[in-house]
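Quick log. Single chain, no ligands specified.
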Amino acid sequence: MSYRSSLQSEYRQPSNPGRQIARQPTNRSAEKRDESGYTLVHAGRQVRFGPVAFWIVVGTVTTLGMWSAATATYFAFRDDVLTRLIARQAEMQYAYEDRIAELRAKVDRATSRQLLDQEQFDQKLEQIMRRQTALESRATAMGAIPDITGSIRAPSRGAAVSEPANPGIPKPSPISDTAVFVAPPDREARLESRTPIIVNAPATKAAKIQGVDNVIVRLQNSLDQVERRQFASLTSLEDSLESRQRRMRGVFTDLGLDAGQLEAATPRAGMGGPYVPVKLANDAGAFERQLYRINISRAQVERLNRTLALVPYRKPVVGEVEFTSGFGIRTDPFLGRPAMHTGLDFRAATGDPVRVTANGKVVSAAWAGGYGRMVEIDHGNGLSTRYGHLSEIDVKVGDVVKIGQVIGLVGSTGRSTGPHLHYETRIDGEAVDPQKFLRAGVRLSAG
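-> predicted structure:
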């Protein structure tokens, strides 16, 4: 018990002097009080251990110390075991490093070849993508032209490219006017996916490169076809517009009309806006120049259409045209004497619709002597038409009429021997042969 007393006297420090228990005068009294355990005091804190716990801790510490000493002694006298172990580890490490270096060299060589191949592929793909974008913009510009019928179709199934195994290879869309390509993944991902193939199977790699080249060539051929079709459509449209302009101007020439004067006098609907001149860039390509010419031709055709809408060169009745009497001198059907016939008589049945042959305004819609029920349309610029012997009039004075509008029904009113339509065309009040207008219309429509 003397050992307990010494521990107590050395470590036990009371934290509160006011509560400190008075030291007993004899060691026997302390031994009796601490027989139930051991108390450690540090920084004002007390930790109490029971006898069993205290000896367990002491035993554990002693056992660990003895084990450490024994292990150190064993390895100190058996250093050859440790040496062999270290040498084996070093040998394995060197072999592993050599293998890593060899594989890294192979990967570097394969990556270098792959980078060269990839750069070439990227360049070709970039060219195709730029060309694709240009063709799409051209298709959009062409789509704004209403004269082009149909669309530039995608390449035929035989020329289309099947879906490649490599995700970096673009593929044309089956529903687009031009081939739309899927954006390729990043280069690192492609290299990572291709490196094992190149290292382990060079023959497969060569086959894949050849396959990529074939796909690029087929895509270029597909774009060539699309571009040729675009130019062919533009050329066809340009030729058609130029031909139509010639035919439309030929109508004025055949009729002896001044096209410029008629165009200047043609009424226009409300329109306006700032004047912005059309400019063609100096670096414009063949497509842009051709599109510029087409737009100019379209504007001219539209202007001529507005003017020709006031020229009565269309048929006043539907169906096949059959004349019962022509323009000029004839034998009068009632008196049997020579007389001037100022129009054309169209064979028709009672009740057949009579249609206006040009835009204009109704200036007469009533009974007019030998004409019977008659409608007269003023088309402006000194042009007018008359429709006689009607059984019914469907318009009134002041009405604005459009081409093809029904203005009455065929009849036999007035000085007539049977149902027919008497049709006249007049320039500045003078009757002219309507067949001149009809023939000009036939030539214009035939084109």
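Residues 2-75 form one domain.
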